[in-house]
Amino acid sequence: MNAVQSSCMSSNYGVSHGSFAPVELASIVSAIGEPEFPSKIFAIMSASVGVDYCSLYRKSGCELVELGAEGALPAGQEERVRNHVRYVVNRSSMSAQEAVSTETFRTVNLDGPGEGTVGQRPCEGALFSARRNKDVFSICILRGPGNDPISPPALQWLKDATEFLVAAMSRHAALTLEKPDLVPALSCLDKIEGCVSGDGSLSKREGEVCARILYGLSTCGIALDLGIGKESVMTYRKRAYARLRIASQRELLVWYLTKWSNRGIGRVGDSAKQGVA
After folding, report:
1. Which of 52-56, 114-118, 175-179 tops mean pLDDT?
2. Domain that holds residue 18
3. Cys-Cys link to 276, which of 8, 46, 112, 115 (CB 3.0-4.6 A)?
4. Helix ranges (DSSP H) in 189-266
5. Domain count of the chain?
6. Overall average pLDDT of the 47-52 stretch
7. For the ranges 113-127, 167-181, 232-246, which has the lowest average pLDDT?
8. Are 189 and 172 in the same domain?
């Protein structure tokens, strides 16, 4: 377990962890900002409570965004169940006094006249929500048709765990939803050059050539702008590509935009994970 994970599990953060084992906490924290984050939440929910489906949401004003979902829904009814879950999350509300709100529900009777087998049992569901700044984050879990409702002890366990899970969801959303504004990244030559040459990966001249490539100048244009020959431009470009282990202008653009997005804040995932509170 690394220092970031240990600090996230510290009682200094004032967040209830429910009955999570340390290894479970570590698996959640290490997945923040990564594609497997929803599957880690689902795995713990499934092992601890016994659920068939878990979905995560952020509600910001009137905008509802699904942060991820994992598990199995009744065959042939997936879209209907998802729509009903979104409806439940959308209409849910929290009072200013509530730290965590809970709600149990059943999905609508999935089949009706003329739509297959009448009377299929609905899914048993539960919704847990908590505020994070101005947003409301929700965790929805389902048990498929034929399963018992979620027991009161299991509901209490989930309620105790909600604040910690929402803290992790908030950081995950910040990493995955709040994209940087990349318009300035390609519109100002001075800023491009500063970013390209900022960490010493390239020599001064190699950085100048790459910056002008990204700015959209041709080989002749770069040569005129820098006062060097076209052959020199091609030589500096070749050296720069070799240093960066790339082989095309497209790869240069990908490298640069990644560098631009992460500049000045170190490893983004680590800095965000430190704020799970």
Report:
1. 52-56
2. 3-177
3. 8
4. 189-196, 204-215, 219-226, 230-244, 249-262
5. 2
6. 88
7. 113-127
8. no
